[in-house]
């Protein structure tokens, strides 16, 4: 049995290092038409009254006060709080700093943050690449099949990734690469996620079973066979709740026991609130999308926090838990929703901001680390 102890390069010095991002030249923008389309802003304002009651569990800020007006911007000029946002687009990965400056890492796809935000893991053709947010490459690992979906373990010592249909794991310094499962694609989307504070990996195998595997000991901890159409897996920060999105969405505990099952529908996107078990999810019905917060011991408490026409393509919580970012793809907007002293910031022209055009194919990949 092989024991992996090596961290990602420099990960131990997370508290002493900071990365520098060269502020890229402001990209040419497609001018906005004269006047403003206030319809999306009106929809935002209509949803604000429900926010005051959105959160009650301990540890969550109380969403209250309606005194602040909705703010609207034509472009992403800054972030409303600390941290950096990672965006994946057809042209590559974008790193957005607090002051609104952006850097494009051209040609890198499916990028994800390392635990302290010092590094990214990304795909470039058949190469798995570990690089800094300023584009400096630390290592590459070539595989025979195209790379996809790399994810870091909680401390940066492991990266799980796809090589074609196969699920593999490698050390954070590119050593010890090994096969986990030869085919996790099957008839649907691949789904896998590290359990926080462990080297346990939950994944959907090609029989559509949900498996939790200790990758260091190769021991299967549990297997859940009664699943259908798993599309994404998400762990709460404490590693005690796993949200299973797909045809039969549900929440299971760390032992694989079902806590609750939702009505059959595709609850995506979704995001656990930082340091809590409360879950934000998007549902879509008859052309209308809604962001709801589910909480309570069996997730029976539901509060609607935002609703609008069209598609919501992504959710991301700020590291300080005060803001929820909604990617309103149909409106080509990002909506920042603040939890205290309720405030809405609607940022338009997101497709042009990330060079993905009016169809807005850029996708949120995480709001990381102050």
Blueprint (SSEs and pairs):
Blueprint: H1 39-46, E1 71-73, E2 84-89, E3 92-96, E4 102-106, E5 109-113, E6 120-124, E7 127-131, E8 137-142, E9 147-152, E10 158-163, E11 166-171, E12 178-181, E13 192-194, E14 200-204, E15 210-214, E16 219-224, E17 230-235, E18 241-246, E19 250-253, E20 258-261, E21 270-272, E22 279-285, E23 288-295, E24 301-309, E25 312-317, E26 323-328, E27 333-338, E28 344-348, H2 350-353, E29 363-368
Q: How is this structure best described in words?
A:
- The protein is mainly beta and 370 residues long.
- It has a domain at 48-98 and 269-370.
- Helices cover 3% and strands 42% of the residues.
- The chain contains 2 helices and 29 strands.
- The protein has helices spanning 39-46, 350-353; strands at residues 71-73, 84-89, 92-96, 102-106, 109-113, 120-124, 127-131, 137-142, 147-152, 158-163, 166-171, 178-181, 192-194, 200-204, 210-214, 219-224, 230-235, 241-246, 250-253, 258-261, 270-272, 279-285, 288-295, 301-309, 312-317, 323-328, 333-338, 344-348, 363-368.
- The strands form 7 sheets. Strands 1-28-27-26-25 form a 5-stranded mixed sheet, with helices on one face. Strands 4-3-2-29 form a 4-stranded antiparallel sheet, with no helix packed on it. A 4-stranded antiparallel sheet has the order 5-6-7-8, with no helix packed on it.
- Strand 23 and strand 24 form a beta hairpin.
- Mean pLDDT is 82; it is low at 1-6 and 10-69.
- Overall mean confidence score, pLDDT: 82
Q: Order of strands in the sheet with the most strands?
A: 1-28-27-26-25
Report the major sheet: 5 strands, mixed
Gyration radius from CA atoms, angstroms: 20 Å
Regions with little confidence, pLDDT below 50 for 5+ residues: 1-6, 10-69
How would you describe the shape? globular
Query: In whole angstroms, how far apart are the ends?
Result: 37 Å
SS content category: mainly beta
The number of helical segments is 2
Work out the number of β strands.
Answer: 29
Helical residues, percent: under 10%
Strand content: 35-45%
